[in-house]
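Our example copied in:
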Amino acid sequence: MTTARSRTDPPPASSADRAWRDQVVGMIPALRAFAWSVSRNGADADDLVQETLIKAWSHRERFEAGTNLRAWLFTILRNTYYTAVVRRRREVRDEDDRHANSLVSAPDQDWRLTLRALQASLDRLPLEHREALILVGAAGLSYEEAAEICGCPLGTVKSRVNRARNRLMKLMEIEDSPDRVSRDDGPSPHPS
């Protein structure tokens, strides 16, 4: 009585696959010796041979029958070794975490909180004030361009931007000071 093969079972190996696998297995001692000669470490040599075998098996359809299997396997091992060497050069050895502890990143929580507060305050502005402020302040458009987009007179846009800035500063509890960032758009509503 035969049982049905499940979807997860690998397909049965053909005689060609078995013969190819047997040839590869026969070369493991030579591969290990070569791996040890380049890596000078038994564990690294074993890892290198294992990775070579995985790559060879995964790409066995690329091997041309009748060519030198030994040379093909040694080329895979050599390329794998040099790829690892290049990768290691970019890595920093840091067994005692000295390097990791020296890396510092400025905290960004304050900026996130400020950005959330700004968004919440902008949402509390009347739509036409928010729109004018964003067009002029955030998008960097001129008052004339903003007036054209909003379909209203230039003075109306200037008034809306001024009111939006003042309201936004109150909502965010920012003191009106002469050193605050503002556009060079004419006289300040609060002469200094």
Summary: Residues 69-90 form the longest helix (22 residues). Residues 178-192 have pLDDT under 50 and may be disordered. The two ends are 99 Å apart (CA to CA).
